[in-house]
Design a protein that fits this description.
The complex is a heterodimer of chains A (about 190) and B (about 425). Chain A is mostly helical and about 190 residues long. Chain A contains six helices and four strands, in the order αβαβααααββ. Chain A has helices at about 5-20, 35-40, 60-70, 70-75, 110-120, 135-145; strands spanning about 30-35, 55, 155, 170-175. Chain B is α+β, with helices and mostly antiparallel strands and about 425 residues long. Chain B has three domains: about 1-70, no CATH class; about 75-285, Oxidoreductase, molybdopterin-binding domain (Sulfite Oxidase, Chain A, domain 2), CATH 3.90.420; about 295-415, Sandwich (Immunoglobulin-like). In chain B, about 15% of the residues lie in helices and about 30% in strands. The chains are: A mainly alpha (about 190), B alpha+beta (about 425). Strand 4 of chain A pairs parallel with strand 15 (about 285-290) of chain B.
Chain lengths: ~190, ~425
């Protein structure tokens, strides 16, 4: 007959026996060490430029590459072509606070490093990842010079690109919401004015 | 024991006999094109008088009924490789979205990935950078949770004017699945986090090589490396074989086709967290790192482009959700927001998950404006459109969570309106 005491003893025995059986051993055999060679294929360029590759390019070189590989989607003047789905890359200066804001690299993007990172990883659209480091520097220089952010003769490389001061660099602030004003009493709600 | 060849042969003969016995039925079959995911079968007058089809004719995966037609709808964008498709919210039943109807957003098409050649690298500010095969990941303890995913751009056309004709277009970048995977925290213990670790970059293996920086906090609290969706492997459109799930956060951050997680001490300021997915305020400055999808709801019946045949009793039905907790309650208004009454919650609210609600309504045949508002467990109440626009202007683009209004006209037709 099972008393509550034997039940408890049984329970404890089961608990210990069971945990001894399933407990993982020390050491970690799941996953494989990732080698430097494998990891060197990856990149993500933060604003300080860490990870930018060797190489360089200027606007004149970029202009030729742009005409060949980018203009068919983004337009001869970087204006974007709606039917290709490709957005404008320049324009919109001083438009952000107006009724018709135009968010482009020139008017909106806060970091030039983002431009390099994005072209390098996913452009041209139909041949992503096909450009050399020099080509990406040259295209970055060209797009930045059309936007009058750098001079036509400036050379972009791992040192100069992170130093480029984007017009809208200070245009962002961290606010994860929710909007505090929503918590104001109804009479103070801006919509009820 | 004798192999059961005879039985199999007899079965074959029987079904052959059944077919030859019904020549008329076969001839009559000029089957309409089956809806996607279905097969068209002949439909007898009386299904109790005719033998049904045998099992596994579909090859063993199954199809839906030929009478069910709901499909995802493509967005009106020029390039289908960087576009989105909407979930037919008015047609879905219950809380889970069928995997084949889960909304899509791709920035470089849908990649075909062989899981045997796919790895997840976890590296950066860690003690032991590692790569994990899908088999490795399946050896780790998994969890299963229901979460919604909403595109940060869901309902983005509604800031200025009522543009979407129906609820699939206005709110269809929202879907709910049961996700199975391994918490990021488990991976963190396998690689060891450095003291200054504070951000994690997720990167996809698609043509966009999509990247987002995610606060380590979020990754460690409930970040999930998911390989399962609704009881099977992820769909290719949803990131097969691996995706990130960040409960309640904007869909763009939940990197699909996930191939690496780079631990860092700062955000990378990728294109998707600077030039895109940032909210432009009226003063020309933009809010960044707005991650959670705020409390929101929408009535799916009756909704845009529907027609109520006549006055009478109807069940108003809808969906509510919040990325910051649980849905606590849902209110309904029948007069464009002047008065509110509580709706019924049709299932038990779970964190970062959708809830179905309903409300029994007698429509007297007079024009009415139907609204719903979601109340989160924090006490946050879904705002009216005018309140949201007063706070953010009309160019914020993302994270639109205002109350949706459907106008029912005297003839029973339903349209999208702003009040």
């Amino acid at each position: 007959m099972c008393t509550s005491r034997t039940l408890t003893a049984l329970f404890i025995a089961t608990l210990f026996g069971f945990s001894a059986q399933v407990q993982a051993r020390d050491g970690d055999d799941i996953g494989t060490p990732a080698t430097e060679a494998e990891l060197s294929a990856f990149f993500a360029i933060p604003p300080d430029g860490e990870g930018l590759p060797p190489g360089s390019g200027n606007a004149a070189q970029g202009s030729a590459i742009y005409a060949e590989k980018c203009a068919m989607c983004h337009g001869e003047k970087l204006e974007g072509i709606h039917d290709t789905g490709a957005p404008p890359l320049a324009g919109g200066a001083n438009s952000l606070a107006t009724e018709h804001p135009l968010k482009t690299i020139q008017s909106y993007w806060p970091y030039a490093t983002t431009l390099y990172d994005y072209i390098w990883r996913s452009m041209p659209f139909h041949e992503p990842g096909s450009l050399t480091a020099d080509e990406v520097y040259a295209l970055s220089a060209y797009i930045l010079s059309v936007g009058k952010i750098i001079g036509e003769d400036e050379v972009m490389n791992a040192q100069s690109l992170p130093k480029v001061k984007m017009p809208n660099a200070n245009g962002f602030y961290v606010d994860p919401g929710p909007d505090r004003l929503i918590y104001r009493p109804a009479k103070a709600s801006p919509a009820k004015k | 024991m004798k192999p059961d060849v005879d039985v199999a042969r007899r079965r074959l003969l029987l079904s052959a006999a059944a077919i030859t016995a019904m020549p008329g039925q076969l001839a009559a079959a000029t089957p309409a094109k089956a809806p996607p995911g279905a097969v068209t079968y002949d439909v007898p007058e009386n299904a109790t008088k005719v033998m049904g089809r045998s099992l596994l004719e579909d090859g063993g995966y199954g199809t839906r009924s030929q009478f069910e037609t709901a499909v995802r709808m493509r967005a009106d964008n020029p390039n289908d490789m960087t576009s989105w498709s909407f979930t037919p919210l008015a047609d879905t039943i219950g809380n889970l979205t069928p995997s084949g109807l889960h909304y899509e957003r791709h920035h470089g098409g849908i990649p075909a990935i062989d899981p045997a050649r796919h790895f997840l690298y976890v590296h950066g500010l860690v003690d032991d950078p590692k790569k994990f095969s899908i088999a490795d990941i399946k050896r780790l303890p998994s969890i299963t949770r229901k979460y919604f995913i909403e595109c940060s751009g869901n309902t983005l056309d509604e800031w200025s004017k009522p543009k979407g004709k129906n609820v699939q277009v206005t709110h269809g970048l929202l879907s709910t699945s049961e996700w199975t995977g391994v918490p990021f925290a488990t991976f963190a213990r396998h690689v060891g986090l450095k003291d200054n670790a504070s951000w994690v970059l997720g990167e996809g293996a698609d043509a966009a090589v999509m990247t987002r920086s995610i606060p380590l906090d979020k990754m460690l609290s409930d970040g999930l490396i998911a390989y399962g969706q609704n009881g099977e492997a992820l769909r290719p459109e949803q990131g097969y074989p691996l995706r990130l799930v960040l409960p309640g956060y904007e869909g763009n951050m939940m990197i699909k086709w996930l191939r690496r997680l780079q631990v860092s001490d700062r955000p990378f300021m990728t294109r998707e967290e600077t030039g895109r997915y940032t909210g432009l305020m009226p003063d020309g400055r933009a809010r960044q790192f707005y991650y959670a999808m705020d409390a929101k709801s929408v009535i799916t019946f009756p909704s845009g482009e529907m027609m109520l045949p006549k006055p009478g009793n109807y069940q108003i039905r809808g969906i509510a959700w919040t990325g910051r907790g649980r849905v606590q309650a849902v209110d309904i208004s029948l007069d464009g927001g002047k008065t509110w009454v509580p709706a019924r919650l049709d299932d038990v609210p779970e964190p970062m998950c959708t809830v179905r609600f309903s409300y029994p309504w007698y429509w007297d045949g007079k024009p009415a404006i139907l609204q719903s508002r979601c109340i989160e467990d924090s006490g946050y109440v879904q705002p009216a459109r005018a309140d949201l626009v007063a706070l953010r202007g009309e160019h914020f683009v993302y994270h639109y969570n205002a109350i949706q209004s459907w106008a029912v006209a005297a003839d029973g037709s339903v349209t999208n309106v702003h009040v």
